Every structure is written in structure tokens, then in C-alpha cells.
Amino acid sequence: MAGVQVANVSRSFGAHKALDNVSIDFADGGFYALLGPSGSGKTTLLRQIAGFDFPDAGRIAIGGESVERVPVEKRRIGMVFQNYALFPNMSVADNVAFGPSVRGEPKATIATEVQRALDLVQLGKLGGRKPHQLSGGQRQRVALARAIVTKPRVLLLDEPLGALDKALRVDMQIELKRIQREIGITTIFVTHDQEEALTMSDRIGILRDGRLVQEGPPEEIYDRPQSEFAATFLGDANIFHGDATGFGIKLPDGTTIAASTGASVPAGAKASCAVRPERIRISTGAAKPDPANANTLTGRVSKRIFAGNNSTYFVDRDGQTLKVIVQNTGAERLAEGEPVVLSWSPDSTVLIAA
């Protein structure tokens, strides 16, 4: 196994800069998610690490060894794609055995390693089947077994769960995490699914327009986003714009929002605040103030969306629509058009420099 270091990597295609001076360290044995919208550069970065493409500038190292000009077949990389890329005319066992066979390993060794890989992905008894006889989740496991049977130093996953339905996707998230932990391989996972990134990874890197916007543990990025883009791309966030006061911001109408975390912004400078919808308390105008929730705004419910275990309220405040998520605990539900009070703690407010 090995860690991966990407240092100041850039890659352009004509006038389009797909990667712009990107630097990330992928720790040995960690599970890392690359998250971003279409065209953000996440798949391009994965291709640079795999060796399918070479950077215009910068350095890529695997296990401390520079590989930015090393061809893909010599990097000892395992890859799993969204479309599985299985050979339809081969059995499951032969699909998994393809890599070791090409490398000329002894047949007895190959048989042992293939069975071990299939047992690891819980398909030990299905080696004789063809891919068309398997479910989508099972075909994904075959692709994973084929990737790990060659004992790669790094495992790269490019939207591997994108073709699965939601229930199967959740099951495979659990399985992928279990397998990764069991073999301890450095894993880099490309996804556009925020929930996948949050639930599966040890660290997340958010890319936008070829640049790394923010990276760190999922909880850190979610609780302390460093930009409006990071706040709104990874989960929902209510964004307020105003002038920094030294401890928060003052809105154009004079209302002050207190923040206890985030960027250090000089008083008077333009700044923003981000507040997660689930951190806001919503109540009728008759409710008593809560001393713990120093930030208070008034508004009117414009819409309510029921989602089973929770409801999302959309609240209009002077032309701005704010989102509040509450658990459905059987308490009285607020009606559309009803005046409400929104309140939250300064600890739930993240100050962001403009």
C-alpha cells in the first residue's frame, strides 16, 4: 500500500484549464472522496493519478516515488468504473483472473488469489457465473475483486455506484467501506453525490473549475466551510450577505447576525454568513425567546415539504427565502402563510470572507 502526493498539478485541454495548480496529499490507507460538479476536474485528477493522462506541470508521487511520466501499467493501480467494464463472455472467476493472467502468474497462484478476492467481496460461490447472470450490485463486486486481486498500491473509484438504485447504492457504500478497511488500501473515490462523500470518506476534497476549493475531514468541511460554494455544494446552507462587525455581519436592513466561528474579517469589510437549515429553530410568533439562540429573524412560511422523518420549511423574509429542516416528532405543523420566528446560536453561524 502507499500514499499519493499531488503537488501543483495543472492540465489544460486547449484553452480549457481542467486542473489549475492542484495540491492534495492522500494518506496511506485512507479513504478520500473527490467531490465537485460536472467539469470541476475530479475525473481529470483521477486520470493523472492512474496514468491515463499526464500533467502539463506539477508532480505526482505514489509511495514517495515520482510517477507523473510513468505509464499506467507500471503504476500498480486498481480501478473501478461506473460501467464495470466486465468481459461478458468470461465467467466471474475468469474476469477476476484477467489481470494476474496477463502478468504471467502461475495458474495455481491465480486460482488461490481469485478465490480470496471473491470471498472478500462475498461472491465466493459465484465464480462460474457470467456477468449477465448477476445483479448490478454483484457485477460491481466483481469489478472490485478484479481491481484488488493484483494487490495494487492504490485503488481508484470513478463514480462506481452511479448506475445502482438508491437501496442497492446504500448497501454497496457499506460494503465498499468494509472491504477498504479490511485490506487497508489507499482509496480515492470520485463522486458527485454529497451524501456518499460524507458517509464514506475520511477526507473530502471539493473541486471547482479545476481548483481545489477546500479539503479536510467531512465534519470539518460541513461545519466550517471556507466559501459560499463549499457551504452550498456540500449540503444546504442559508447565506446572508452584509458588512463584517468583528463578531458577525450587519445585514442591509440593520439586523446583526452573530457568528462564533469562521474567517477573520475586518470590521466594515464585505462578508457572508452560512447557517445550516437543520441548525435553525422555527416557531410561531407567540413563542418565548430562547436565550441560547441569540440570532433571531422573523418571516412567513411560504412552503412546507414533507419528507417522512423530517419536513423542510421555506420561509420568506424580505424577499429572501430561507430553508429550515425540522424532525417530524408529532408536534404541531406550521401552515403556509403563518408568521414565524427563526432563531439559532452563534455557534451555528460560520463567517465567510467575501
UniProtKB/TrEMBL annotation:
It comes from the Bacteria. Residues 4-234 form the ABC transporter domain. Its EC number is 7.6.2.11. It catalyses: ATP + H2O + polyamine-[polyamine-binding protein]Side 1 = ADP + phosphate + polyamineSide 2 + [polyamine-binding protein]Side 1. Transmembrane segments: none annotated. InterPro entries: AAA+_ATPase, ABC_SmlMolc_Importer, ABC_transporter-like_ATP-bd, ABC_transporter-like_CS, Mo/tungstate-bd_C_term_dom, P-loop_NTPase, PotA-like, Transp-assoc_OB_typ2. GO terms for biological process: quaternary ammonium group transport. GO terms for cellular component: ATP-binding cassette (ABC) transporter complex. It is an enzyme of class 7 (translocase). Keywords: ATP-binding, Cell membrane, Membrane, Nucleotide-binding, Translocase, Transport. One of its GO terms (molecular function) is ATP hydrolysis activity. The complex is composed of two ATP-binding proteins (PotA), two transmembrane proteins (PotB and PotC) and a solute-binding protein (PotD). Belongs to the ABC transporter superfamily. Spermidine/putrescine importer (TC 3.A.1.11.1) family. Part of the ABC transporter complex PotABCD involved in spermidine/putrescine import. Responsible for energy coupling to the transport system. This is Spermidine/putrescine import ATP-binding protein PotA. It comes from Mesorhizobium plurifarium.
